[in-house]
Amino acid sequence: MSVASRIKDAAAELFIGAERRGVFRKLQAFERDLSEYPELEVLAQNYPVIRAECEYLIHSQLRLPGMEELTSYTSGGIHQIAWKSFMFKSGEFIEENCALAPRTAALLRDIPGVYTAFFSVLEPGQHIKAHWGYWKGFVRHHLGVLIPGNNRDNSCWIRINPEAQARDGDRTQIEQGEKYFWHDGEAVLFDDTFLHDAANNADQVRVVLFLDVARKMVWPLALLNRLFLWIAHKDKSVRAIRTNAKIKAAP
After folding, report:
1. How many CB atoms lie within 10 A of CB 103?
2. Tens digits of per-residue pLDDT, 122-164?
3. N or C terminus: fewer CB in 10 A for the chain?
4. Is the dihedral of CA 205, 208, 212, 215 positive or negative?
5. For helices 219-232 and 3-20, what crossing angle results, to 10°?
6. How far apart are CA 69 and CA 244, in angstroms?
């Protein structure tokens, strides 16, 4: 077992226990109010800038790597679908990529606590099957960037069951989950350690700006979280993500 895996398991036990004891707040399925994380509001405020850079990347001759090329951390083979990424940061900024979308990168650099940031590009007709995320010390942020038809027909969604967070649990519990429908320029927060799935049932690509942000906690846990994350992001598996995420010109 890698250092990152051991740290992940230790942190999961610690933070899930702290949440159960009320040391920090358990999130709802979806948090539309960002007032606990006001530093993230700058992204929605600059949505036109982010969208313009994203459209350039999507329509360029650049080859975006598939998620399966970056990491195998998620169980269940969820990356074996047409799901691509343009990564700005995985523990550290990927400077080659940031140079291709400099204004979005500059916004991200000014936000404290961001550990992962990328354009999540889901091709048409794709379903990311139900799975659990990997780090209770994060909150996840999605900003709708390119949402087909601004989701007039509710064809693009993510679904979460906040009562299902045991990684060895029953994945069919996702059927009792709550759906959120992305919209252009609209942001939402959630806890990805809850069981969740997502789909793009439209006939066009769906893009969200995807961030993992250090969770707001009381200072002893916050300090431990930062320590865990610092160690984890030095692991060779995370260094490999940064290498594999570098954008190359299309052949």
Report:
1. 11
2. 999 999 999 998 788 999 999 999 999 999 999 999 999 999 9
3. C
4. negative
5. 160
6. 7
CATH number of the domain located at residue range(s) 3-249 in this protein:
2.60.120.330
Residue 97 corresponds to which tokens in the numbers above?
Answer: 């990529």
Place of tokens 């610092």: 230
Distance CA 186, CA 178 (A): 18
Q: 202: how many CB neighbours lie within 10 A of its CB?
A: 21
**Radius of gyration, alpha carbons of the chain:** 17
Give me the sign of the Cα torsion angle 167, 168, 169, 171. Answer: positive
Q: Residues 37-48: what's their mean pLDDT?
A: 98
The crossing angle, in degrees rounded to 10, of helices 102-109 and 47-59 is 130
pTM of the entire structure?
Answer: 0.91
User: DSSP states of the chain as a string?
Assistant: --HHHHHHHHHHHHHHHHHHTTSSPPP-S-B---TTSGGGHHHHHTHHHHHHHHHHHHHSSEEPPBHHHH---STTSTTSSSEEEEEEEESEE-HHHHTTSHHHHHHHHTSTTEEEEEEEEE-TTEEEEEE--S-TTEEEEEEEEE-GGGGTT--EEEEEETT---TTS-GGGGGG-EEEE--TT-EEEE-TTSEEEEEE-SSS-EEEEEEEEEPP--HHHHHHHHHHHHHHTTSHHHHHHHHHTS-EE--
d(CA 142, CA 186): 8
